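Holo model, adenosine monophosphate. Inputs:
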Amino acid sequence: MNRTIILFSLLTAGILATSGCSSSAGDTSSGSADSTSAVSRDIFAMDTFMTLKAYGENAPEALDSAVLRIEELEHELSVTDADSDIHKINTSGGNAVEVSEDTMNILNKAVSVSSDTGGALNICIYPVLKAWGFTADEYRIPTDSELDELLMNTDMSEVMLSGNSAAIPADYSIDLGALAKGYASDEITELLRENGVTSAIISLGGNVQSLGNKPDGTEWKVSVRDPFAPDSDMCIVSIGEKAVITSGNYERYFVGEDGKRYWHIIDPADGHPADNGLVSVTVIGSSGMECDALSTSLFVMGYPEAVEFWRKDPHYDLILVTDEGRIYYTPGISDSFTNISSMPAEMISEE
Ligand code: AMP
Ligand code: MG
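Output:
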């Protein structure tokens, strides 16, 4: 993730901004609020910059609670924090570990989406990410034999979940990075609602999620970055209460000595960065966690498999960008999608 770009966007534009999506949301202050001015909190957590913006008199206290909740989730889910559930699972020597309800919710979703997507989502891929250097920003290109050996310990059917306990084999490691931020954005929007907020928009890294409409009743405008020029926006989509979540090959990558770009989304089939025809996948739907899990999975599947997958159960919308520079979007957003790039955009048919 290019943190410089993101921080720059937050400071200069006064808008919500993430690696994948951004949204315009009006004036912002960090203190008290009337019903039309936003109160916001900027924090760095879960390895990304986050902006939470809420409207109305309950906003300041609700946002304070939201920040505490994010810190709690980070503590449970971090792969490096020695007290986290994930660290405990990864270092338990194959024994079952009791975990929080949050961790269990995400693990259950990871297992079901992995199965639905034929293994495109695989939380056991962590040792492969480590071999590429993505976990410590110390990049290198592993050999195929090294990757083949690591892939032997990535069988998702070895993830055992029962009640509130989880177990993986001793030589396995998991990481929930592909869907944890989506879970967090579901939790945060729900917590804001419970605290009396009716209008809010949050950005957790590449994930934007809204609560209600804008205070004036109109829809939010969320822009999606151009994967070929990530400082610029590619399109704008109007949404009511939705999550808009992007996985892109520009979010975290390095350029190898061979001049090629290697990115952070791994194809579990071969242990290499997924290079199956897509450079950006945006999923728009009502569940942040589902959109997040699917954005990573569909990126791995590539084009046209992602389209076939969507057609089987089209209860969410997509904006796909191919490596040839073509945009494809689903019919559900045809009235709310505006292409502001020079790339051609085409609607995907339902069958
Ligand atoms: P996202 O930005 O939501 O697409 O998530 C990408 C993150 O998920 C990466 O930084 C890794 O931590 C992790 N990851 C990469 N490839 C996979 C995969 N095939 N399945 C599950 N997690 C992955
Ligand atoms: Mg994801």
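The domain at 4-73+198-347 is CATH 3.10.520.10 (T-fold). The pocket of adenosine monophosphate (ligand 1) is lined by residues 121-123, 125, 129, 175, 177-178, 206, 247, 251, 264-266, 268, 292, 295-296, 300 (CB under 6 Å).
Archived with the compound record.
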